[in-house]
């Protein structure tokens, strides 16, 4: 068997592992040494499967098996940027409506004639195993806010004065993408100002519910009920006790009469509840006047790493809580409601809200609705040349928190590298960019 023209095949396996597998080929064509080197091929293929042609100098009678080197990769080399939805279209459902109806019919058919068992979140009880997770999410949010206040003192973040776009870097990017007021007169150019914490972490508020199984909030009571950050409300419903925002804690599951009617179980026989100490102390936000700026580069890098850990911990914990405690979002505007059914406040001002009388179109929320990541352009080299308008297709994007931490000295997480396009070679000039196939 002739194996003079062998192939080195790189295949996906497990993260952080290498595997050598055996492969025999009897007929191989002459390999194309320039295949897969164009930009289109690099965007089509991921780093999880790469084929590299090699030429063996060992005689065929000495080779019994040709080896394949397997390099691990759980994430693709490049990924599409998050889609920008127009204000005139409704957000897509996380699960298609056809599948939701099919699952509901199958569930009713299965439970017909059987006693319906409600999950702990729908029966009014608190899931005890998720209480530490709720405290971790609450403290991670506070840590993230405090660290962002410190990093804004050492990392320059720009915000456009006419639209909601921001940029992390020494100077604002030159892309003509402004959609604010009088953008046509400015030819789409941004007018950059200094960004604040609210520009980095978008405030998403929700109504605080004393009883999450109570009646829906009517339109007339929308001003009498306090509004707090939606992540904070999710943590309170999951077991975090805050004296300023009391909530009803049940110790027995409710007695469901119908879909919208229930009766609380008799808890008079139970002993008086003993106040329990929280599993972890609750942190508090640091005032702006007490912010201490890190002095050395080592402190800045450690602060950036801590901020990335808090960001991932908050998102991962919130994702776990949303599986058991439902969160709703309006399909037309960013309004979020933590609860099974959305409120009845007619304060939706999105496209064609007059036809809906200001009512929200509630649907199941995803994690990005509760914690918007807000993607920004990734700067490959802070000390290098600024971004260029003509080379826009070669730059990547990352969540603003990740971009701030990376520029402060933290290592880029693996699950954000596909959109950051760290493995893409950026041409040095426009002439070189035009030569890319």
Automatic annotation (TrEMBL):
PROSITE patterns: APO. Residues 159-244, 329-414 form the APO domain. It comes from the Eukaryota. InterPro entries: APO_dom. One of its GO terms (molecular function) is RNA binding. PANTHER family: EUKARYOTIC TRANSLATION INITIATION FACTOR SUI1. This is APO domain-containing protein. It comes from Tripterygium wilfordii.
